[in-house]
Amino acid sequence: MEFNASNGFQPAMSTCMHAQQYAEKMIKEKYVELFDSEPDRTHNLKILIGQILPEDYKVDADIILKAGMLSSYYMASRYPDYGGTEEITEETAEEAYRWSLEIVGLIDRIHRDADGKIVIDTTEAEND
User: What CATH number is associated with residue 82?
Assistant: First the structure.
């Protein structure tokens, strides 16, 4: 993903696929950290994010939309007959790259507190 970003987000479809994969792998790593077990075998970022968020956390609908778009880019890159996505341009790839970093930024703030409860640190979000 970083290589493609440094190369003008070329090839665009590859950049989108790698952006989804980066977010997916980071979410799954966080799942293992939190639950000490293997996450579901899915590429659907919306499902994976939902499995690690604190129960009382109201996730921004924008994040869920971005996760869904990244998932659709991945599916289109792997399965040409998948359909459902517009033409993938360098601008689309740059957007996917930013979304992936945003999702991983959210995931990085999730942890267990001293009582073992899953929480999300909002300090970083308040500084944005």
Answer: 1.20.120.330
The rounded distance, in Å, linking the Cα atoms of 87 and 55 is: 36
The pTM assigned to this predicted structure is: 0.89
Q: Which domain holds residue 65?
A: 2-127
Instruction: Report the alpha-carbon distance of residue 69 to residue 101 in Å, rounded.
Output: 14
| 82-122 pLDDT per residue, tens | 765 578 899 999 999 999 999 999 999 999 999 999 999 98
Of 49, 29, 115, 42, nearest to 74 by C-alpha is 42
Gap between the Cα atoms of 1 and 7, Å rounded = 10
